[in-house]
Specification:
Layout: E1 2-7, E2 11-17, E3 24-29, H1 30-34, E4 49-54, H2 58-72, E5 76-80, E6 84-85, E7 88-89, H3 100-113, E8 117-122, E9 125-132, E10 136-144, H4 146-156, H5 177-200, E11 203-207, H6 211-215, E12 222-224, H7 228-233, E13 239-242
Parallel strand pairs: 1-4, 4-5, 8-11, 11-12
Antiparallel strand pairs: 1-2, 2-3, 5-13, 6-7, 8-9, 9-10
Helix pairs in contact: 4-5
């Protein structure tokens, strides 16, 4: 079996493929691994290869590498951004400075759409990347995600205190502080995405934990792919290197 891992700031997602009728999926809080817990993999799994996309820091990667070495006697491979992969040219002048999660999501979305695409990863931070046909990554945008925007208002003001909850309607102004905050935060993301989709006339692919919340406002105009980063891991040309002993 091949184990692919997407370690984000808030959650770690994993997927097992190979020799299975369908992939096995799982997830847990990233902090659980930081606090010494193992990745909750099936005890009967027989893993021969493990690949990691991580924006969660070296501590998490080291913990996962240690678990995999002990549990399966295999080395962990780290995905990294390269100048080109899966037919896409990276738009960053220094590809190494682009987040690996953004890169994998971008090339996976382009591989699916095979045309110009706006790629949204709605997680702790919300990222928006643009890939235009025939395969040129233009770069992207990073803004606070829903939770970070909400927390910024909570912590940065004395009177704007609101309970975070999914807004029912962003087209009608809120008649209380809770609704005004929750509708306003979502409206910011929706408006930014709509502007970029209109500007580039591309398909819209959404992933990330807040993806379903965004999807409710785009209907048939968007595709939600919950495991987009994992999908990108196995594409041709993705850079992979062993997690070196010195990093542990």
């Amino acid at each position: 079996m091949i184990l692919d891992i997407d370690a984000g700031n808030g959650r770690i997602k994993w997927r097992l493929t190979g020799g299975l009728t369908k992939p096995l999926l799982g997830s847990q809080a990233t902090d659980s691994v930081r606090q010494g817990q193992s990745l909750a993999l099936p005890e009967t799994a027989s893993v021969v290869r493990a690949r990691l996309s991580s924006v969660a820091g070296d501590e998490v990667a080291a913990s996962l590498a240690s678990q995999l070495a002990q549990q399966f006697s295999i080395d962990l491979e780290l995905a990294e951004v390269t100048q080109t992969a899966a037919g896409v040219i990276c738009g960053y002048s220094d590809p190494r400075s682009l987040g690996i999660d953004r890169w994998l999501a971008a090339i996976a979305a382009f591989a699916q759409v095979k045309n110009t695409v706006v790629v949204v990863d709605a997680g702790s931070a919300a990222t928006i990347d643009i890939v235009v046909a025939p395969g040129r990554h233009l770069g992207g945008y990073i803004v606070p995600g829903m939770r970070l925007m909400h927390d910024a208002l909570w912590q940065g003001t004395s009177r704007v205190k609101a309970e975070a909850r999914p807004p029912e309607d962003i087209n009608t102004p809120g008649m209380n502080t809770n609704d005004a905050v929750n509708r306003g935060c979502l409206l910011i993301l929706v408006a930014a995405i709509e502007k970029l989709v209109a500007q580039y006339q591309g398909a819209l692919v959404i992933t990330g934990g807040d993806g379903p919340l965004l999807m409710a406002h785009f209907f048939e105009r968007a595709v939600y792919v919950p495991d987009l980063v994992l999908d990108g891991m196995g594409l041709d040309g993705v850079g992979l290197r062993p997690f070196k002993a010195a990093e542990k």
